[in-house]
Amino acid sequence: MKITCYIGLMLCFSIVCKAQDNNWEKVSDSLAMISRAKADEVFTYFDTIRASKLLYSLEDRYFYLIINDTPCYKEYYIILDSSAKVNIHPIDTREENKKQRKQQKRYHKLLAEAEPFNLSKYHTNYITNIPDAKFVRGKPSYFVVKNINGKRYGEYSLAAFTLPLPIDGKLAGYLMKRLSDEIIKYNKAAH
User: Fold this and answer.
1) Residue 51: inside a domain, yes or no?
2) Is the residue at 145 inside a domain?
3) 174 domain-assigned
4) Is this prediction's pTM over 0.90?
C-alpha cells in the first residue's frame, strides 16, 4: 500500500513539474522576444551603416555593439534607460598610457582569435534554452550577429553564465569583459 501511494505521489509530482516546466518555457520564450525587440530598437540607430553587426546585451539595458567596418571594427557601448532613451557611446580604442596599451593589445588579440564575423561558425536558430547545460547563472543576456542583409546568426537569449554557450568562448569572454568594463566606467562617471 505504501509503495502504491509513493508511486502515485511521484507520478503526480512529475506531472506538476512537467506542467511548470512548460509554463517556464513559454515565459522564457516571451522574455527572449522582448530581448530581440530591444536589440532591434538599438540596431535601428545603425541601419544606415551597410555592414555586418554583432550585438551582446545584459538585462536588455546594457549593449555592446561591434560593426565589421573595414579596415577595423567600430565598437559602441549603448545604454537603454528605463524611459527607453538610447545613449550611444563610441568606444575609444586609443591608448593613453602603457597599461591601457597592453590591455588594448590583449583585447584586440582576443577579438581577432574569436573571428566574430565568420558566419559559418554560428547556428541559425534562436536559442532560448540549453537542456544539457552544465552551469546556468547570472543576468539575462542576448547575442546576435546580423549580416549585411539583416539575416540573424548565433542568436540566443540565455543566462550570462551558461556553460556551454552556443558561441566561441573567446568571443563570449571578450564581450563580457568589454561590456562590464564600460558599465563600471560609466557608473563611476555618474557618481
Assistant:
1) yes
2) yes
3) yes
4) no
